[in-house]
Amino acid sequence: MLSDTQKTYAQAIREARTQAGLSQGKLSELCGGSPSRVTINRIENHQSPCSAETFESIVSALGLRLVVLDGQGNELAEIGPGPVKAQKRHRGKGRKAS
Predict the structure, then answer these.
(1) Mean per-residue pLDDT for 69-78?
(2) Model pTM?
């Protein structure tokens, strides 16, 4: 069974791919054939986990940039060349995103 985090990755991959107007096969081609179309399908349908390496390959192929945040909204790492899709987020009362 996939974790909630893995399911979130799968949904993010599907949404980004469809927003880019790409088929699973075309996304696989943009990734250099790995992951395959079948693997992308299995990830998107929650049948297979997405490794960090595969996720990074897909993010880069889609021209996106993934920013990893800690629990306080501080940037820990980023992957990919594209523009940041989400802004810094904070939890708690009285704190606003910057």
Answers:
(1) 83
(2) 0.72
